[in-house]
Amino acid sequence: MYKIIFSLAASILVLFTHAKAQEFNSSVPKKIVIVLSTKDYATAKNFAIEVSKKLGKSLELNGLKPNRELGLTFSKEDCESYGYPCYIPRGEGNAENSDYISVEYSNGYEGFAKGYYIVVAGIGDPNSAFLTRVLANAKRYYKDAYAKQTKVWFGCMH
User: Fold this and answer.
1) Phi and psi at residue 78, in whole multiples of 5°?
2) Would you say the C-alpha torsion 22, 105, 144, 122 has a positive or negative sign?
3) Which of 8, 28, 45, 102 holds its CA 20 to 30 A away from the CA of 58?
4) Cα of 112 vs its chain's centroid, Å
5) Phi, psi of 54 (to 5 degrees)
6) What is the C-alpha to C-alpha distance for residues 9 and 130, in angstroms, rounded to an integer?
7) Can you state the percent helix, strand and coil of the chain, rounding each to 5?
8) Omega before 85 cis (within 30°)?
9) pLDDT tens, 69-112?
10) Distance, CA of 78 to chain centre
11) Rounded to whole angstroms, how far apart are CA atoms 99 and 141?
12) What pLDDT sits at residue 19?
C-alpha cells in the first residue's frame, strides 16, 4: 500500500515540476517599440544615440558589434558559454519589460522582416499601459515610431 501511495505521490510531483518548467521555458507575447529600421548598422547606432538624447533615455548597446553571420554579436569573451559569434535579442530569457534605447537585429524576432538593424525604444506586454506610454513618448519626436508584436523566449538560455 505504501509503495502505491509513494509511487502516486512521486508521479504527481514529477508532473507538477514538468508543468512548472514548461511555464518557465516558453515564448511569451511582447510588443517592441521601433523608431528606425535600416540595413546599415552605423546609421542605426547614430540614430540610437540621437533618440537616447531626445527621449532622455539610457542607451544600452551592450557591446554588440555587427557580424556577417548573425547580424550582431557580443564579444568573444561574452560568447564563451554559447560559442562565438552569439547574439541574444533584447528580452530573450527573462521577457522583461524595458524602457531604454538599443540597436537589435530583426532576425532575432519572430515575425520581423529579416536583415534589419532596428532602433528599439522599449519592449512590453501587448496592450499594457507601460507600452502605451513608451510608444506615445517615442511618437512625440518620431511620428513613424510603431509597436510590432512578436514572441520572446522566457526561460533558460543554455
Assistant:
1) -70, -20
2) positive
3) 28
4) 13
5) -65, -40
6) 43
7) 35, 30, 35
8) yes
9) 999 999 999 999 889 999 989 887 677 889 999 999 999 999 99
10) 17
11) 16
12) 40
